[in-house]
Design goal:
Number of domains: 1
Distance between the termini: 40 Å
Helix content: 40-55%
Bound molecules: flavin mononucleotide
CATH class: Alpha Beta
Number of strands: 6
Strand content: 15-25%
CATH superfamily: NADH Oxidase
Structural class: alpha+beta
CATH architecture: 3-Layer(aba) Sandwich
Strand order of the largest sheet: 2-3-5-4
Number of helices: 6
Order of helices and strands: HEHEHHEHEHEE
Radius of gyration: 19 Å
Largest sheet: 4 strands, antiparallel
Shape: globular
Amino acid sequence: MHLAQLLRERRSVHRFEPREVPIDLVMELMDTAVWVPNYHMTQPWRFIISYGEGKHRMAEVVRQLKESNEPDVSKKKDVGQKFYDKIMAIPMIITVIMKEDPNIIVREEDFASTSCIIHNFSLLAWEQGIGINWETYPWLLKETFRTAMGIQPGEKVIGNLHVGYPAMVPKAQPRVPAAERITIVSEA
Ligand SMILES: Cc1cc2nc3c(=O)[nH]c(=O)nc-3n(C[C@H](O)[C@H](O)[C@H](O)COP(=O)(O)O)c2cc1C
């Protein structure tokens, strides 16, 4: 697929087929995705890939968080189970983690580079018929999640990538034409 077509046709995917995504393929795509520009080559990223029964750890944290957030005692168990099942139904989850430099300039540059990896991966995956969605739900910031996943002090979770073969591809949401946001300066 041509790059321009890939860029325009990639969609964020929310519903997946139940089949597994091959881990070897994901490892290979990630190894290409990390070829991003990165100022001073700090390469501050790391990733946790959870799939199969490996998702249980994360699903259990979400169950506990959702149960404790539910004010109606009679609904707690059902709400917790619903979210547990939701996580377990996602074929693969990639948790994207970045080391947070104390210097804000470096930190922002690092965030930019790590975000580029996510988009690179998303495009490489799309080319293979695999969809992703970049999720930033609030529980990524919770200590219970961080502890369960072994996130260290000084590390920021940039998102969870839900990865799988699309069961449904959403319609494209139109973009403002770039020309409307471009100021051309061509004369002195
Ligand atoms: C930084 C970032 C965070 C996002 N967080 C979420 C999220 O928490 N939940 C979600 O459903 N989509 C999330 N998205 C996906 C966007 O909603 C999606 O890209 C947008 O609707 C455009 O759709 P498209 O990617 O299919 O073109 C996120 C995207 C980015 C770049």
